[in-house]
């Protein structure tokens, strides 16, 4: 996952809350998108930064981490992974062939039984040890095994509608990556043939076929990993650690603006507003229509009382994004607090019309229905919230709430 920080939500001139906006890569699919370096596209041309990227960093303002982010460790196999490769995977590979054997050994129910879990972004060793991860984590782990077997892999970024989620003071937008291994294999539940490549992805094949994907480099994947970790540290208020991961994200993938956005949010959280503004304006030169960058800059200027500079940027942002993420969700929350339960139903329903897989909005609907005495509807939306949860902890929370509802 990658996160983009701080953005104020200003729906219809109503100030709802101050939040950081971050971008993340969180879902894995067994289909086409992310691949582990093989036919990787060249990185897009990026205008050089005056003074280099090092000129953006404020190392002396942040406490040194106990363990610095190490890009060389992202794809590293642990001793347990090597043992699994030699003892458990080898017979499957011999029987099924290298590519299919790798997929069977990692994703079939008879072997590892890997699970999707968006709690935080893991490297290859951590994903294997936990037997779970988000899409980026599982792509990294699969690529590590594929390389050990001598396979060439290709990373891809999939163009899907951004999915938003709340995490503390952050609003996170999640993108999607996946991994391609080779050619043809049809008829298996999670394996699809797209453009003669065997791709690992959890998205339904029909949905993937409608989406564009682009090959990306290994360095971009490592930059995404670092940015996700930075965003996750931000959400946990570990500002110093977030800085070092955001810094490394830019070093690894200087063409990706998500790292700059996260670094700017780190600076804003640390009171380094001048540095934050410089980073945001630099990133906007590269992606002038990026609403996360614009939103964070608008908020920064508002906090400094620079209304004349803020107003045209806010107007431009509203044209690009008339309805900010979570607008109706926050209005629905306010309606709940004030006892306007019927209006809360309308607002949460409107939020779900734009983002139908948002567990927070389903939970809001459940609360509103319960307040109105409609237990059956409350139960239904709590079940949706549990099923759409992206982590075990979140799913367990909704399951516990569901268990406390009276049975009808």
| Strand residues, percent | 5-15%
Q: Profile the largest sheet.
A: 7 strands, mixed
Helix amount: 40-55%
Q: What's the overall average pLDDT, rounded?
A: 80
The best one-word shape is globular
Order of helices and strands: EEHHEHEHEEEEHEHHHHHHHHHHH
- Alpha-beta classification: alpha+beta
In a few lines, what is going on in this structure?
The protein is an alpha+beta fold and 408 residues long.
Q: What are the defining features of this structure?
A:
408 residues; 13% strand; disordered N terminus
Q: What does this protein structure show overall?
A:
The protein has 408 residues and is an alpha+beta fold. It has 16 helices and nine strands. The strands form two sheets. Strands 1, 2, 5, 6, 7, 8 and 9 form a seven-stranded mixed beta sheet that branches. Helix 7 (239-252) packs antiparallel against helix 8, helix 8 (257-269) packs parallel to helix 10 and helix 12 runs parallel beside helix 14. 48% of the residues are buried.
């Amino acid at each position: 996952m990658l996160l983009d920080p701080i953005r104020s939500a200003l729906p219809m001139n109503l100030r709802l809350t101050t939040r950081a906006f971050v971008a993340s890569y969180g879902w894995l699919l067994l289909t086409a998108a992310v691949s582990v370096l093989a036919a990787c596209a060249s990185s897009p041309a990026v205008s050089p930064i005056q003074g280099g990227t090092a000129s953006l960093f404020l190392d002396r303002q942040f406490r040194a981490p106990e363990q610095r982010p190490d890009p060389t460790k992202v794809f590293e196999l642990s001793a347990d992974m090597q043992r699994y490769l030699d003892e458990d995977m080898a017979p499957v590979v011999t029987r099924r062939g290298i590519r299919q054997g790798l997929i069977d050994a990692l994703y079939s129910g008879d072997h590892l039984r890997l699970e999707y879990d968006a709690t935080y972004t893991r490297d290859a060793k951590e994903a294997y040890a936990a037997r779970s991860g988000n899409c980026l984590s599982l792509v990294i782990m699969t690529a590590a095994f594929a390389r050990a077997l001598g396979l060439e892999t290709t990373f891809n970024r999939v163009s899907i509608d951004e999915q938003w989620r709340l995490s503390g003071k952050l609003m996170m937008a999640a993108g999607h990556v996946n991994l391609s291994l080779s050619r043809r294999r049809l008829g298996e539940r999670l394996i699809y043939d797209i453009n003669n490549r065997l791709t690992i992805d959890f998205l339904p094949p029909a949905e993937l076929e409608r989406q564009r994907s682009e090959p990306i480099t290994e360095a971009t994947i490592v930059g995404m990993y670092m940015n996700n970790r930075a965003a996750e540290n931000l959400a946990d208020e570990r500002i110093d650690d977030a800085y070092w991961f955001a810094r490394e994200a830019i070093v690894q993938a200087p063409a990706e603006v998500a790292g700059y956005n996260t670094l700017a949010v780190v600076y804003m959280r640390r009171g380094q507003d001048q540095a934050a503004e410089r980073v945001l304006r630099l990133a906007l030169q590269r992606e002038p229509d990026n609403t996360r960058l614009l939103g964070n800059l608008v908020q920064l200027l508002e906090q400094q009382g620079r209304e004349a500079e803020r107003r045209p940027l806010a107007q431009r942002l509203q044209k690009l994004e008339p309805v900010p993420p979570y607008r109706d969700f926050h209005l629905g929350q306010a309606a709940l607090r004030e006892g306007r339960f019927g209006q809360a139903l309308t607002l949460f329903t409107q939020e779900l019309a734009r983002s139908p897989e948002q567990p927070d909005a389903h939970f809001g609907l459940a609360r509103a229905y319960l307040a109105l005495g409609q237990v059956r509807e409350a139960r239904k939306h709590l079940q949706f919230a549990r099923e759409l949860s992206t982590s075990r902890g979140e799913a367990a929370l909704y399951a516990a709430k569901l268990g406390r509802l009276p049975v009808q």
